[in-house]
Amino acid sequence: TEWAAGDKVPKAGLKKFAPAARKDNVFADAESFARRIQTPCNDLDGNDLPVSTFQAGGRVPLGTSQYEKRGIAINVPRVDMDKCTQCNKCSLICPHAAVRPFLMSQRELEGAPATFRDGSRAAIGGGVLDNYHYRIQVSPLDCTGCELCVRICPADALKLEDAGKAIEAEKANWEYAFSLPDRSDEIDKTTVKGSQFQKPYLEFSGACEGCGETPHVKLMTQLFGERLVIANATGCSSIWGASNPSFPYTVNAKGEGPAWANSLFEDNAEFGLGMRRAFQQRRDFLTLQVEDALGDGTVSMSEKLRKLLAQFLFMRKENQHDLLLPRGRSVYHQVMEKLEPLLKEESTGHAKLQKLFDLRDQFGRISFWVVGGDGWAYDIGYGGLDHVIASEEHINILVLDTEMYSNTGGQASKATPAGAMAKFAESGKQTAKKDLCRLAMTYKTVYVASICVHVNPQQAVRAMLEADAYPGPSLIVAYCPCISQGYPLAESIQHCQLAVDSGYWPLFRYNPDLVASGNNPFQLDSKKVKGDLFKLLAQENRFAAVMRRDPKHAQELDDKLKRSVMQSNQLMQVMDKEDLEGQFHKLVEGLSDGGG
User: Fold this and answer.
1) What's the whole-model pTM score?
2) Which of 36, 236, 298, 384 stands the most exposed, by the fewest C-beta atoms within 10 Å?
3) Rg of the Cα atoms in the chain
């Protein structure tokens, strides 16, 4: 038997796999991991690696995807910098962070390759940008050839060319650009253009070409990456987010970056809530230690350190919101950056200061995000999601809505709209899509937003910043194009625009904080329905296939969908009116009667 055969294995043959044999199993950096584990795995030699090669506990370094250089695209974009308007939209929409803007000083430009130098222009936009030169640089070996940057460019400055020629011409340019200093601290991240000068802490993932999920998560990392913690539900986002041995989440020059962990469909929201509450407890303990150190006359410290500790203690005691500084930085994070060198210098003077230095990472405020797809949020994990948004904890939820279980082959979820064909709904889904946003709004204590970065990126930036600053739970639902919806993803920008224009995917924000100042908490950002819903449906094979199979039945389902879309948009038009204190609550509470 197998058991008997196992008993006969020579003991000596097991020695190299014993935990005691592990030596030097902590990787100093991502490059070491790539050399020792990633390269053998990609060469299909992973089975030959002994257990002692791996780090105990399952931890892995961030940023290993940068070493793969897959080179899978047939054609990649080339930029005509004479046409470029420096809007940075190509960088925003790139699913794999293979197109980026770079800023160079005059000295750095002089040391660049000749073709890099010739393709750079003076940065425009005023302020700090006047000190730099600007260039859009493509990484031809990391590009997947999805065409989205070409389609979104308002100046027709990008054209596709043969990947072989591009690699030869641009490989050295990308390597030079990638080595330039990070100047994100100098730039206002609260605008679309400014956000793209921030380092993307999600780069070169294994997501599909043209993926609609990664631009949303990449933008989230650009806004909060240095203080970001992600609890990721199993699904597409966990696969492209952490497929061993390639990890696309990365760090900056200071070693700061997202902390990422994956949990299951059924408990990811609770998993993230547990992280948040554990951090809160540790931070409460830090507050007590700060109070103790400031009140102890035997603790000698500089006046500068005392003032900063007192500032932190005041903000904590007064439960102040984490205000955004002019460039979109966290006040708490700024305090932490000032405290760290002072505590390091003075920690040897007293044990209580040493303790504060040991707890220094708790001075900043972490931005907690629970991330997953609609299969998790609308279906299997909905009970946990509802529990989290009812908790009134300061935690954020990002739902990447592809309207089906994309990762497992396109099964129907409660996010699938009526009339769409999916697995387990082969003749078209009979029931309407669950309105997750309106359900969350019934609590009246949850920040809620519906976004699509392909259509209105500034609204998406604003929604993420507002959600992070809101002192309670937030829910952002992002419309994410997916190949399983049945149309070429190169057309997803125009397709998403039609989805918004037809009322199929309205863009809005609901901020309960606005009620205290007498303002309407609901803001409809896509004001007027002006597109043709049936034109949108005809472009997607999941609807068109039902029409080909049974036109009469398909028409009935599509009419049902249109009525639902119209009712929902009419409700939101009313909610967007200014007079809403009583009327809004009446409308939202009417959900319990099945309205809309």
Assistant:
1) 0.90
2) 298
3) 26
